[in-house]
Amino acid sequence: MSFHPYLNFDGNCREAFTCYHEIFGGTVEIMTMADLPEEDRPPGAHPGMTMHAALTVGDDWILGSDDFPPGSFEGVRGMTCNITIDEVDEAERIFAALADGGEVTMPIAETFWSPRFGICTDRFGIPWMVNTNPAEG
Fold first, then answer.
1. pLDDT in tens, 52-69
2. How far apart are CA 20 and CA 102, in angstroms?
3. Residue 66: in which H helix or E strand, if any?
């Protein structure tokens, strides 16, 4: 069994997944409404809207789409994407990239459970927790 977040966006899913690809690496795949046969498109769906996006990094992935119908997006509530990283420098780089243009809730810093931990909401409205594994030993 595995769990993977499916994120909704306010018409900027492609931009968000392009940004996440730059931050995390991996492989990104994006399917737009234009990729669907016209008779299968939901009424009112703009052909450029992202129907489905996937970013695969190793054995993990996040999924997303533009919220439908247009204008129905109410923001992300009640969840946070958590990423756990082994290296402090990499955690700081990822946190800075996610926080760029967004809002920092808790600056990345050492905590009693982690060499680095921080919370931010990225410029796309997605909340993130960046956590670093403690060094072994």
1. 999 999 999 999 998 777
2. 14
3. strand 60-66
Rg (CA), the chain: 16
DSSP β-bridge partners for residue 54: 29, 63
- 7: tokens are 């994120």
Q: pTM of the predicted model, to two decimals?
A: 0.90
Residues whose CB is less than 8 angstroms from the CB of residue 81 and which lie 6 or more positions away in sequence, other chains included: 5, 7, 62, 126, 127, 128, 129
Tell me the CA distances in angstroms from 120 to 32, 101, 105, 111, one per residue in order.
28, 10, 5, 16
Give the count of alpha carbons within 13 A of 11, CB side only.
7
* Closest CA relative to residue 80, chosen from 53, 54, 56, 98: 98
| DSSP assigned state of 46 | -
Between the alpha carbon of residue 75 and those of residues 9, 101, 122, the distances in Å are 8, 17, 12
